[in-house]
Design a protein that fits this description.
This protein has two domains: 3-72; 78-149, no CATH class. It has three helices and four strands. The chain has helices spanning 3-16, 24-72, 104-109, and strands spanning 88-92, 99-103, 112-114, 121-123. 5% of the residues are buried. This is TFIIB-type domain-containing protein.
Length: 149
C-alpha cells in the first residue's frame, strides 16, 4: 500500500466515525489529516522526480562508459600497450649517459632531438637499433624486455 493509499484509508476511517466537525478535537484531527495528505502528495512528487533523475544518471553512465571505451579502448587487451608491436630504438646521450627510446617515425622524421635529461642535441641514426632478440628496456609487458625509466 502506498502512502497516498494509506492516507485515503485514514480519511475514510475518519469519515466513517462521523466526527462532529464543530468540536476542537475534531478540527485538529481533520487538520492533521489534511497535512498528512499534503505530505503524501509531496512524497509522491519527489519519488517521481527521483525516478527521472535515476533514469538520467543511468543514461549518463552508459554514455560515459561509451566515451571511456572510445578513449581508452578495452582494458582487457593489454597487448595494445606493448612496445614490441612497434620497433623501438635505443639512444644513449654521450654527454650525460641517459638512455632514451624512440620509435621508427621519430628516428626517420626528426633526425635529431634534445636529450630530455641534459638538453644536448642528439643526432638520431638507425645504427642505434637493437635486435629483436635483445632486451629493448622499454617495457614490462611479459615479453622479456625491461621497463623503461
Amino acid at each position: 500500500m502506498t502512502i497516498g493509499e494509506k492516507v485515503s484509508y485514514l480519511k475514510g476511517l475518519i469519515e466513517g466515525l462521523d466526527i462532529d466537525k464543530g468540536k476542537k478535537e475534531s478540527k485538529i484531527i481533520l487538520a492533521m489529516v489534511d497535512i498528512i495528505e499534503d505530505l503524501a502528495l509531496t512524497v509522491d512528487d519527489i519519488e517521481e522526480d527521483l525516478d527521472e533523475v535515476m533514469d538520467f544518471v543511468e543514461e549518463l553512465d552508459e554514455d560515459l562508459s561509451d566515451v571511456e571505451d572510445d578513449l581508452y579502448g578495452d582494458e582487457d587487451d593489454d597487448d595494445d600497450d606493448c612496445c614490441c608491436d612497434e620497433p623501438m630504438y635505443e639512444v644513449t646521450c654521450p654527454t650525460c649517459g641517459e638512455t632514451i627510446y624512440v620509435d621508427e617515425d621519430t628516428l626517420t622524421d626528426v633526425g635529431s632531438m634534445p636529450c630530455p635529461n641534459c638538453g644536448e642535441e642528439l643526432e638520431l641514426d638507425t645504427d642505434f637499433a637493437f635486435d629483436d632478440e635483445e632486451e629493448c628496456g622499454c617495457c614490462d609487458c611479459g615479453c622479456d624486455h625491461e621497463e623503461k625509466e
